[in-house]
Amino acid sequence: MSIAYLNGEFLPLDQARISPLDRGFLFGDGIYEVIPSYGGKLVGFGPHIDRMQEGLGLIEIGLNWSHEQWRTLCEQLCEKNGNGNLGVYLHVSRGADTKRFHAYPEGVTPTVFAFTFEIPAAPVADKSKARAYKVSTTEDLRWRRCNIKSTALLGNVMHFQQGHAAGNNETILYNARKEVTEASACNVFIVKGGEVITPPLDNQLLPGITRLILIDVLKKYTKIPVVERTITLDELYNADEVWITSSSKEIAPVTLVDGKTIGTGDIGDTWLAAETAFAEHRYDY
Question: Which residues contact 9 (CB under 8 A, 6 or more apart)?
Answer without folding.
Answer: none
